[in-house]
């Protein structure tokens, strides 16, 4: 273990060395054993490996009778989370597309069931936010923190939901989650809630993309409408009752690229879950936008 690089409600994240390579080690508080077990279980899902999902290396339990440490060992990415990256980095349209398309690709892979003897169940994340997306050295994202994920077992039509009591992050919760209206027996409900949260992440990224020399400072979604650590009722009032969404800066309407982007994010955070775009549709749209953008580049 070299140094601590992060701390969360589950435990700590350390940069460490393993076989001469830098790795990240997430250590869980013993009270969070269910989270550790769930995340380990999800990471070990067959065919989960993907460029845009954080690479899992190993899980371990260390300790004596009275003292236990739960480890989850993954690839290390020095840029840290997308949240940290956006604080420190301004984007052009190409780097914005690289971040957004790669994140959408990771979510699409999670959400997709792969059939066959070595198949992969569909998985919903349930805590999509910029702090749970990491940025690789090449400016591409990977999805991390699968401790809350749910799996859909199509053979038995069963939603396999984590036994841990953690819920997602209030600021990123979909209106139906805040209203306690999400149909927990229907797997698509979780996928649609993920897409609402992803719409907010797209907004965070777009603010840091320069157009005509203008850029907004990093802010979390709803920074101007709720308190720094908003409660359920506060979020519900804004998102569900008043149906407010993050403010779209005027400059975005003057830039064709950001205009198209606004359309995608607005269709992700639609009040009606059934009207939201799927991860695959977002991935296809962003792929086309990326290709168009690269054609324009001198």
UniProtKB/TrEMBL annotation:
Domain of life: Eukaryota
Xref: Pfam families: PK_Tyr_Ser-Thr
Localization (cell): Membrane
Key words, A-Z: ATP-binding, Kinase, Membrane, Nucleotide-binding, Receptor, Serine/threonine-protein kinase, Signal, Transferase, Transmembrane, Transmembrane helix
EC identifiers of the protein: 2.7.11.30
Enzyme class: transferase
SMART domains the UniProt entry points to: S_TKc
Topology in membrane: Single-pass type I membrane protein
InterPro entries to which the protein is assigned, alphabetical: Kinase-like_dom_sf (IPR011009), Prot_kinase_dom (IPR000719), Protein_kinase_ATP_BS (IPR017441), Ser-Thr/Tyr_kinase_cat_dom (IPR001245), Ser/Thr_kinase_AS (IPR008271), TGFB_receptor (IPR000333)
Residues annotated as binding ATP: 26
Domain Protein kinase: residue ranges: 1-298
PANTHER family noted in UniProt: RECEPTOR PROTEIN SERINE_THREONINE KINASE, TRANSFORMING GROWTH FACTOR-BETA RECEPTOR TYPE I AND II
Family in the record: Belongs to the protein kinase superfamily. TKL Ser/Thr protein kinase family. TGFB receptor subfamily.
Official protein name in the record: receptor protein serine/threonine kinase
Gene name of this polypeptide: LOC106819043
